[in-house]
Amino acid sequence: MLKKLLPVVVAGAVVGSAAADEAEIRKAMEAKLGAKVESVSKAGYLGLYEVYSDGHIFYTDEKLSAIVLGGQLIDGKTMKNVTEERLKRLTAIKFSELPLERAIKHVRGDGRRVLATFEDPNCGYCKRLAKELLKVDNVTVYTFLYPILSEDSVRKSKQIWCAPDRAKAWNDWMVDGKVPSGRDDCDTSAVTRNQEFGRKLNISGTPTMFFADGERIPGAIPLARIEQKLGSVK
């Protein structure tokens, strides 16, 4: 009986030890970073641990003798970017949990494909994206006003939200350069709540896009890549 139990006991001890190591690393890293660590796991390479905090991946050893930030971990055999793949998983969301009622809705064609964006009205890359998205058919785009660049961004966001036709007001400014001139004193709590929600998602730059499968893509990307991603999501 003891021989049958021994492997189970040993396995349990190993798992327990690993969990203890990860807990200790989490505590130590939180002290060093001054921020909450969301996850700690073995990276699978060189005895390193992957530490995820504030939207970033760090690598360290069990003694925290060195901490790597910003480096890309590449698998030597497959040349796959391990860091990039892990970030895709760690920063993904459930699209169904987005508060779509606080977004500007644009529908083109049958609207069967979906995309959500977080954008600042004074963001140059967002303006480029707005023009590119006009070329995409059969899509529903949910634009979350996310003013993070200046007080003027907040004012413009409120004016666009207060407009009778929000989608038109957005495109008038982002695509045609027609400055918003309407009121900004309607119920603009959606803008404030978007700011709070975006911070919770660690969105630090605009545009940031989310696709139906939850994948997050920061920054403006080529139209061909947007089409490819929209077409690959079922």
The helix count comes to: 7
Beta-sheet strand percentage?
A: 15-25%
- Percentage of helical residues? 40-55%
- Rg result: 22 Å
CATH topology of the largest domain: Glutaredoxin
Draw up the topology in text.
Layout lengths: L1 H32 L5 E4 L6 E5 L2 E5 L6 E3 L12 H9 L13 E5 L4 E7 L4 H10 L5 E7 L5 H12 L3 H9 L14 H12 L7 E4 L4 E3 L4 H10 L2
Parallel strand pairs: 6-7
Antiparallel strand pairs: 1-2, 2-3, 3-4, 5-7, 6-8, 8-9
What do these coordinates show?
- It contains seven helices and nine strands, in the order H-E-E-E-E-H-E-E-H-E-H-H-H-E-E-H.
- With 234 residues, the protein is of the alpha+beta class.
- The chain folds into two domains: 2-90, Disulphide bond isomerase, DsbC/G, N-terminal (Nuclear Transport Factor 2, Chain: A, Roll); 95-232, Glutaredoxin.
- Strands 5-7-6-8-9 form a five-stranded mixed sheet, with helices on both faces.
- The termini are far apart.
- Residues 1-17 have low confidence and may be disordered.
Could you give a short description of this structure?
With about 230 residues, the chain is α+β, with helices and mostly antiparallel strands.
Key traits:
alpha+beta; disordered N terminus; four-stranded antiparallel sheet; 9 strands; five-stranded mixed sheet; Nuclear Transport Factor 2, Chain: A; 234 residues; Glutaredoxin
